[in-house]
Structures are given as C-alpha cells and as structure tokens.
Amino acid sequence: MTNETALSPQRERPAENEPVSLADALRHALERSGGRVGIAVAAAPTVAFVIANAVGGLTWAFIALAVAAPAAFGVRLARRESLREAVIGLVIAAVCALVAALTGEARGFFLVPTLLPAGWALVFAGSALIGRPATGIVLNRLAGGPRDWRRNVALRRVYGATSWVAAGVCFVNFVVRVALYLTEQLAALAVVEVAVIPVPFALAAFTVAAARRAIRRSDAAAPAA
C-alpha cells in the first residue's frame, strides 16, 4: 500500500458524520483518497511513465515523469490537499525513477512499491502477534477509545482482527506485484498501483467504524454509576 493514510487522531469521541457501516467506510475511503480526480492525479506520474516507456523507451519515460510528477504536485496544491502528502508523492516518484535509472530497466520504477507491502505485512502481523495491534495504536484515539484499550476485550479483538486483515491485504498485494514484476507486466503494475490507493483509507475507516460499535456496546453494557 503506497498511499499514506491521512487519518490523524483529533477527536476523542466520534462525530455523527463518521462512517458507521461498510458502505459508509468505502465512500469515506474514496473521499479521503481525493475522489476520482484525486486518484487520477496521484496516478498520473506512474501512468505517464508506463505509457512513455511503451512508446519511446526508458529515456522518454523519464522525461514524461519529469513533467507529470511536478504537474501532479501543483494540482494537489491547487486542490488544497495536504502539503505533506503532495511532497511524499513527489519524493516517491523521484525514488522510483532513481531505482529505474540505477537498474537500467523500466520495471525498476516499480521495485520499491513492490517490496513495501511485504514490510507492511510484517509490521501488521508482528504487532498483532505481540498483542499491540498496529491499527489500535494508530486509530484508537480517532475511534474515541480509552487509553487502556488493550484491557478492553472487544476493542482488542477488533484491532487484532483488522491488523491481521491489513497484513493479509498487504501480503496479497506483495505477491501480485512480485508476479507482475518478474514477468515485466508494467501496465498491470500501474493498474495495481492505482487500484490500491483507496485501500488504506478503506481499512482505516472500517476499523474506526468497528471500534466505535464495540465502544458503544461496551458503554451500553457498563453499569450505571
């Protein structure tokens, strides 16, 4: 997963307009990804690189990327998207281009995005195994959960399950990318790159929704003071 989640813990209790169902979570993920326009802008450098490489070779791919990446950066700023995310997008494009230049192969552009999901899979799985699920660490405050959420059986179960789901999604993403990378399916790699943009937002939104339902059930079951 290459797109950084923009969710940040800012509220102690859920707002009324936060996602509370899977459908709401998916709509929320699309919105947080910038909508169709935002996804298209984020994907533009990769698409430009692949198309230019197919038409004119690696040199033209670098030229297309050198035009598309700054243009995408400018559009994101014009859309008032997060400056941090815009800068990260520019840096990722530069790193991918550097790897492609060092390897001398167009598929080298996708080497870092191919390997990253494996690292994330290990992080999520490892955190769940040691009883400190990453989704809880990152999203519990946004969900409005208590600071000692690890003592709450329902919340711990939610965060543990969603961390394992995240690990599984990252692992599948890694396997698919490796298969496409080894067979040099650049167009398919670009499609995967675009398709996974909303995934971290969807996982985060669903986790928050599930955690809030668990919190409400816990509050309802708690004896009145």
> Largest beta sheet, briefly?
none
Number of DSSP helical runs: 9
Low-pLDDT stretches are 1-19
* Separation of the first and last Cα atoms: 45 Å
Written description of the protein model:
With 225 residues, the chain is mainly α. It has one domain. The chain is 74% helix and 0% strand. The chain has 9 helices and no strands. The chain has helices spanning 22-32, 35-56, 58-78, 83-103, 111-129, 134-143, 153-182, 186-195, 199-221. Helix 2 (35-56) runs antiparallel to helix 3 and helix 7 (153-182) packs antiparallel against helix 8. The chain is elongated and about 65 Å long. Residues 1-19 have low confidence and may be disordered.
List keywords for this structure.
225 residues; single chain
In short:
The protein is mainly α and 225 residues long.
Write the layout of secondary structure elements.
Elements: H1 22-32, H2 35-56, H3 58-78, H4 83-103, H5 111-129, H6 134-143, H7 153-182, H8 186-195, H9 199-221
Helix pairs in contact: 1-9, 2-3, 2-8, 3-4, 5-7, 6-9, 7-8, 7-9
